[in-house]
Design a protein that fits this description.
The complex is a heterodimer. Chain A is mainly β. Chain A contains no helices and eleven strands. In chain A, strands 2, 4, 5, 6, 9, 10 and 11 form a seven-stranded mixed beta sheet that branches. Chain A has a four-stranded antiparallel beta sheet with strand order 1-3-8-7, with no helix packed on it. In chain A, a hairpin with a 6-residue loop joins strand 7 and strand 8. In chain B, the strands form two sheets. Chain B has a five-stranded mixed beta sheet with strand order 1-9-8-3-4, with no helix packed on it. Chain B has a four-stranded antiparallel beta sheet with strand order 2-7-6-5, with no helix packed on it. The termini of chain B are far apart. The chains are: A mainly beta, B mainly beta.
Chain lengths: 113, 111
């Protein structure tokens, strides 16, 4: 079974630039999550989708972050404009249904300089 | 906010059992305890989860106390590849299936 795919693997941008990350969850998984992991900390939930609808985006900094999952399959997370403190690993995860474990991708490491 | 408390770091000798504790004193009756681990530069990997009963799979065993206020993850024969950060997570099921991570325990398996 293919895992959660994320791209790019690494990205370096200057502050105030824009960046987008892509995630393709495991086939058939209805729930998709984006997490931000700052160095030395545990992953922090940014947004959760159920199919193409947003379940929880309470921790998403909506002034600069946006995410979509238009067809209920793959998803993109965008930062515009980026700040230095956005340097982190951005992890995507998916679950088949409620009460099942989440599978994580390898993440995208973003460095803002 | 994370609802669990774990030691920051632990060491374990290779071949010995690694016992990783977790306190979750405010756990609700319908909340599961999940364990994940994260090896350097990789995404978190699912290990095991449970509600009330002890659980065992090919990777580990999960022991949950009768009052459910704490649990222990047991890696029966630790190898060098088990060196990772281990996260204990209480899964909030009444608001849509989120997984909230704390800072975890950094386990180092020593040769």
């Amino acid at each position: 079974e293919a895992g959660v795919a994320q791209s790019p693997r690494y990205k370096i941008i200057e502050k105030r630039q824009s960046v987008a990350f892509w995630c393709n969850p495991i086939s058939g998984h209805a729930t998709l999550y984006w997490y931000q992991q700052i160095l030395g900390q545990g992953p922090k939930l940014l947004i959760q989708f159920q199919n193409n609808g947003v379940v929880d985006d309470s921790q998403l900094p909506k002034d600069r972050f946006s995410a979509e999952r238009l067809k209920g399959v793959d998803s993109t997370l965008k930062i515009q404009p980026a700040k230095l403190e956005d340097s982190a690993v951005y992890l995507c995860a998916s679950t088949l249904q409620m009460n099942t474990e989440a599978f994580f991708g390898q993440g995208t490491r973003l460095t803002v300089v | 906010d994370a609802k669990t408390t774990q030691p920051t770091s632990m060491d374990c000798a290779e071949g010995r059992a690694a016992n990783l504790p977790c306190n979750h004193s405010t756990i609700s009756g319908n909340e599961y305890v999940y364990w994940y681990r994260q090896i350097h530069s990789q995404g978190p990997q699912y290990i095991i989860h449970g509600l009330k009963n002890n659980e065992t799979n090919e990777m580990a065993s999960l022991i949950i106390t009768e009052d459910r206020k704490s649990s222990t993850l047991i890696l029966p024969h630790a190898t060098l590849r088990d060196t990772a950060v281990y996260y204990c997570i209480v899964r909030i099921t009444n608001t849509g299936n989120q997984f909230y991570f704390g800072t975890g325990t950094s386990l180092t398996v020593i040769p």
